[in-house]
Amino acid sequence: MNTATTNATTNAPAATHPIPAPSGDISASFLGPVDLTGLDGMFSAEEKALALRVRGFVDEHIRPNIGRWYDQAVFPREIVPELGRLGVLGMHLHGYGCAGRTAVEYGLAAQELEAGDSGLRTFVSVQGSLAMSAIHKHGSEEQKSQWLPRMATGEAIGCFGLTEPNAGSDPASMTTTARQAPGGDWVLTGTKRWIGLATLADVAVIWAQTGAHGDGRGVRGFVVPTDTPGFHAEAIGQKLSMRASVQCQITLDEVRLPAEAILPADSAIGLKGPFQCLNEARYGIIWGVMGAARDSFNAVLDYTMGRTQFGTPLAGFQLTQAKLADMAVAINTGYLLAHQIGRTKDATPASVSPAMISTGKLDNCRVAIGIAREAREMLGGNGITLDYSPLRHANNLESVRTYEGTDEVHQLTIGRHLTGLGAFTRTEG
To answer: Using CB atoms within 10 A of its CB, is residue 407 exposed (0-12), middle (13-18) or buried (19+)?
Structure first.
């Protein structure tokens, strides 16, 4: 990576992440045989080069090892600095050492990472779209300068604490509290669950109810160094999904923070603060799951072309071709949806509504998990081994489909947009 220059507007290093010309022929579709509709032509040479660079990283660092990592439930901590050098940590953010790439470029990187494994794409999402975005959108200049440059390189890892054991789809019911002590310090108490990266993290963005304490303005975010006394994270074990990833429970036992630990921007007051970050993560999922779907398709296409039964390659049977055709059409549709949302996000960010993000997350997740399951079935008994990716992708996608909003949450978000009526209900006690 070239020596960074100084960004005059932020007084922080401005990252330069040159993208070398990829090796090989890019005149054919960079998405491979699944590209039935000329998807390749929708992307610039620079965008495709970025995608191929990330693909090369996945081929070198992830594919040779992912079966072992998944089997042993190991997250490869050693690749985090490599992800920083690749320029994908907070890559859609500007200044403070971040790459400043477009939404479409971020999406293309996400789908290449998830073609390797959802857990590795999730790391990039939690780091960049959640923790870094929260600080970038809502933080003070001091918070941004302290954390973002180190997070962009992977020197520091972040997590994002919103979900609780009894507050998943309904974060407004969170019970974690922040009270302001005499002298101005904040004291956090509560529990967070299903928090990615928490045992690895150097900093946590924790959302808590301030209630009548402090300014009395409801949910607020706090930047919490994880070595603060009273902060404890424990990894959740015995998972059947996202095994090459880390999800945790956080316990906050009278965690005392200075007054300046709060995210000060008005944009962070109430649930709109974390929801803005969640929509960044959901956007990355819209693209990411298409990488898992494409990888599952490629795996079963290669398998059926090479395996002969009854004297004929499996790919020569009508039922096989019908399934491959349906998969390819669904993947093309998913990429078109992701591309439309990404271009809109780049051109007019304010016009990207929650319903638009929910449309992409809902449908692309459903499509991807269906393709991964179908591909596993077509692989026969061999498909249950880690020699082939589809069942691993399908298991991971059970988590991806659930986090950052279940199907039902996205259906109700779209329903509210269509009807003007909110179907989210709360029982008053």
So the answer is: middle
